[in-house]
Amino acid sequence: MNNKELLLVSPSPHISSGAATSGIMLDVIIALLPAAAAAGLIFGYQALILMLVCVGSCVVFEFISRIVMKRKQTIGDLSAVVTGLLLAFNLPATLNPVYAVIGSAVAIIVVKQMFGGIGHNFANPAITARVVLMLSFPVAMTTWVKPFFYQVSGSSIDAQTTATPLGIIKEGTGEALPSLWDMFIGTRGGSLGETCAAALLLGGLYLVIRRVISPIIPLCFIGTVALFSWIFGQEPIFSVLSGGVLLGAIFMATDYTTSPITRQGKVIFAILCGLITVLIRTFAALPEGVSFSILFMNILVPLIERIGRGKKQKKGEKKA
Q: CATH assignment of 17-309?
């Protein structure tokens, strides 16, 4: 076989077309809209404000960064909008917007632009920003409110605080756990974009149909969480619907730049993400581990890619 008929599988960066990137990002934005709408319905106008602040500040920081670094403007590729939405989805509904702006600065300036922009960042910007905010402002980042708290007249936000399902189990607060149906439709405590499983699954299905993402990472991630939760004596469906498993598996672990490109690499990456998530939930002090697991595995992607690096792929062979 002629060597010209072989292609070398190699890691990122691969994104070179602004037009193609904007199309992909637009599809991701469309896929995020059901969860955004659900967040607005469940947590009220404060959730909408937080989303607008995150998106607006991410776009502004990207615009300013490109000017200061004397690089071609990239705000038209819509990647900053996606980062802003994903960051907002990882925040409590009543978080002070100032913290959201700080998170946006970390995501865009530090994680994305200082490493060369889209296609060059070492980790998912939204995930990294959330971890930084959690470590910097732990109380604010773990103060959750009850669904529809804004509809209760005459009550303060303090009177409407609650715990996430995982927090109820880990901390033994004595609160009643939400039903699986409540968790499926999103009427539980949690971050803006992680509560409504139905909206996240709808968005994920759209991305798979549009071939924006491969189902390998979400299915392996979610399946691993379910399997090891069962092994450790936990309810598998509850474990999948609680916390940020669906949000992380569908929208953040599948990030093109920070996830493997080979089929084998995707499987290894996703399984380890799921395993680390369950280990943190089960044995660590933190009730949730999705963000830390994805961030840790983002850092290990170059090592995972070595498994497939140098592997020849026949021309025309479909990738995962």
A: 1.10.3430
